[in-house]
Design brief:
Layout: H1 4-25, E1 32-38, E2 47-50, E3 56-59, E4 64-70
Length: about 80
């Protein structure tokens, strides 16, 4: 017969995991950040934004680049 305390511990860990996953998806709990970049370079010039998430975007004169993000529960969000 399996010890009931092992089942209780397993259920507790499962509940904790599901709680953390629910917190991460709930946008009202984490802080939302908005970033807006406007290029004021001369015509024909551009610059590239390289994010920690490994995404690159080229911004041309008079373009506006915006993005928003939420920090995750663990505070390891890359931006």
């Amino acid at each position: 017969m399996v010890d009931k305390s092992k089942y209780a511990l397993l259920l507790l860990l499962l509940a904790l995991f599901l709680s953390v996953a629910a917190l991460e998806k709930d946008e009202s709990i984490t802080i939302k950040a908005s970033v807006r970049v406007r290029s004021m370079l001369s015509s024909g010039q551009n610059f590239t934004i390289h994010c920690k998430s490994k995404d690159d975007d080229t911004i041309w004169p008079n373009d506006v680049y915006t993005f928003e993000f939420h920090n995750n529960v663990w505070g390891t969000t890359l931006f």
